[in-house]
Amino acid sequence: MSHDASHPLPVPDRHDPGAAVRAGLAAPSAPAVPVPVRWGITLPLAGVPLREHQPIVTGLAAAGYTDVWTAEGGGLDAFTPLAVAAAWAPQLRLASAIVPVHTRGPAVIAQTAATLADLTSGGLVLGIGSSVAAHVTDINGIEFTEPFKRTRDVLRFLTRVFDGEVVSGAFDTFAIRGFALRDAPRIRPKVILGALRPRMLRLGFAEGDGVVTNMLFARDVPTVLGAVGPQPAGKELVVKVFVCPVEDPVLARRLTRPFLAWILNQEPYHAFHEWLGNGDLLAASYQRYLAGDAAGAERELPDEVVDGLFVHGTPEECRRRIAEYVQPGVTAIQLYLQAPRLGTFGGPRSRALAGAPGALAGASDALAAPGAAGISVADEALALLHTLRS
Predict the structure, then answer these.
(1) What integer pLDDT is reported at residue 27 of this predicted model?
(2) Strand 310-312 with 236-244, pairing
C-alpha cells in the first residue's frame, strides 16, 4: 500500500513511550508525577533595546526563570534574540511562539532551529504556527493560504527531519526533494504549535510536542485542556500571559487597549473567542473593526475584556492574577511584559515614554518611581520579574 509524505504510516517506537500515542495506537495517560511549571519571559522587553538585555538575561535564572521566548510579527524576528540569549546564558531553554510557517521555507526553519539547538544546553522549543494574514500577506507579500494544512505539513516535515530522516516527497502544500540535516542537534528540538481551537490543539498533541496558546482568560484554560484530553508525559501546554504592571487602571487600559482591539479582531482570535463563548463581549468591537473603524473598535472593547486579557495592577496584584493561569495540565507560563517604567539604559525615567503611544503624553509622573533614579533598568526588570514569578 502506497502513501505520500504528508501521511506517514504510524510506526510505534519502543524507545519512545509517546510514539504509540502520537501514532494513534495507544491511549494517552497522565504523567505519574506532576511536572513543575516552567517560567519564561518574552524577549525583548518592550522599550529596552535587544543589545542592552545581557544583564537581564544573565539574571533570569536567579529570578526563577528557566526559559526565554520570542514572538514574530511586526517587530524583531523570532530567532536572533534567542541566539544572543544563548550566548549570554546557555543554560536557559530557548523557545519561540511562534515562527510563522508561511514566511520561511521548511528547510530554512529546520536549519535555523538546529543551529539554535546547538548553542544551548537548555534545549529548544520550536513553536510554529499559521500566524495571521496581517503578518504573512500584508507585510511580507505572501499569500495566506490553507493555514491549517501548511502548519500540519511543516510540523510533519520538522518531526521527520529532527528524527534524522532524509525527507523526500509531496506534502499537501509543498514538495521536498531529499533534505536532511547534515549534523543532528545534540538535543532534539521540541516542536509545538501555536494553537487556539480544537483542531490545531489536537494536532499539536497528536503529532507534535504540544501547543502554546494565548489571549485567553484564566477561566478559559479548562476549555482548552478539555479540547485535547489527557496529556501523555513530555507534552507541553504553554500559556502566554500578557502583563502590564501599572497600578493606575485607566493608564493601563490606555496602554493595552489598542493592541487588544487589533489582535482580537483578527479572524483566528475572533473565532477563538467565539468558540470559548466570549463572542458577545467582543461583538460590538468586531462590527466596528469590520466597518474599518479602528478607533471605534477600541472604544467598543469592554473594560472587562481589557482587564481580563492583559493583566495589570501592582506587581503583587499581577502575580496573583498570573497565578490563576497555573492550572493542572499547564507546563509552562510565558510572560509578555509591557512595563513603561523600563526605559533605555542610563537615561532618565521619563525616557521610558519615548516609544509609548501618544496617549501617554504627560503620564511620566504616574510612571516615575520615587528614589529609583539610581537603579539600573536591568536591576529593576529583574526585581519586577522576581515578584511576578514568586
Answers:
(1) 38
(2) parallel
CB atoms within 10 A of CB 145: 12
Count: domains in the chain: 1
Domain range for 382:
33-246+312-389
CA distances from 49 to 252, 254, 343, 355 (A): 22, 23, 9, 11
State pLDDT tens for residues 78-135.
999 999 999 999 999 999 999 999 999 999 999 999 999 999 999 999 999 999 999 9
pLDDT at residue 20, as a whole number = 35
Tell me the H-state helices in the chain.
19-22, 54-58, 80-88, 106-117, 133, 147-162, 198-207, 221-228, 249-263, 267-276, 279-290, 294-299, 303-309, 315-323, 364-367, 377-389
Closest CA to 239 of 257, 219, 221: 221
pLDDT tens for residues 3-45? 344 333 333 342 343 343 333 333 344 444 567 999 999 999 9
- Report the CATH number at residue 140: 3.20.20.30
The pTM score is: 0.85
- Place 229 in a pLDDT band, splitting at 50, 70 and 90: confident
Burial of 55 (0-12, 13-18, 19+ CB in 10 A): middle
Q: What is the CA radius of gyration of the chain?
A: 21
What would the grid cell of residue 1 be?
500500500
Omega within 30 of 0 (cis) for the link into 187: no
Q: Say which amino acid occupies 301.
A: L
pLDDT at 15 (0 to 100): 35
Residue 71 forms part of a structural domain:
yes
Q: Pull the grid cell for residue 27.
A: 491511549
Q: Establish if 264 belongs to a structural domain.
A: no
The span from the CA of 360 to the CA of 14, in Å, is 58
d(CA 47, CA 354): 8
Rounded Cα gap, residues 36 and 134, in angstroms: 36
> How far is it, in rounded angstroms, from Cα 186 to Cα 194?
25
pLDDT at 35: 75
What's the rounded Cα separation, in Å, for the pair 175 and 266? 30
The reply to whether 289 falls in a domain is no
